[in-house]
Amino acid sequence: QVQLVESGGGSVQAGGSLRLSCAASVLPYGINRITWFRQAPGKEREGVAGIYRLTGITRYADSVKGRFTISQDDAKNTVYLQMNALKPEDTAMYYCAAGSIAGGTWSLPSAYNNWGRGTQVTVSS
Questions:
Q1: Contact 46, 39 (CB under 8 A)
Q2: Interatomic CA distance for residues 89 and 33, integer angstroms
């Protein structure tokens, strides 16, 4: 079973930056995608950024394109989410998820069966 642990959340002012980390206990060959999701109170969980492990190809939600960057360090079994130019609407609990995912479903929470517990990001105006 894959265990995922997120870290790096915190409180920042609008325009600031944070880097989130997602450390995996193990990443079997069958796990081909790791994705960051977020969920704000009263809202559905949404896919923010995903990475295809074998090629490094990335996907982003339109709301974060140009501001967030997902990357991976295979040696450390860790995926990062660099978040720049943060906005108050980025405030949410951020989760990482891992699974064997077809490209068209990368942002669907129901496609993943390995989740971390999340890290809170709060952006003040």
A1: yes
A2: 26
What is the distance in angstroms between the CA of the first residue and the CA of the last residue of the chain?
Answer: 40
Residues 6+ apart with CB under 8 A from 125: 13, 14, 88
Sequential pLDDT tens for the chain (125 residues): 899 999 999 999 999 999 999 999 988 888 999 999 999 999 999 999 999 999 999 999 999 999 999 999 999 999 999 999 999 999 999 999 999 988 778 999 999 999 999 999 999 99
Instruction: Pull the structure tokens for residue 42.
Output: 């009263």
Rounded Cα distance, 77 and 28, in Å: 10
Q: How many CB atoms lie within 10 A of CB 120?
A: 12
Q: CA torsion sign, 4 to 9 to 21 to 93? A: positive
Side chain identity, residue 90: D
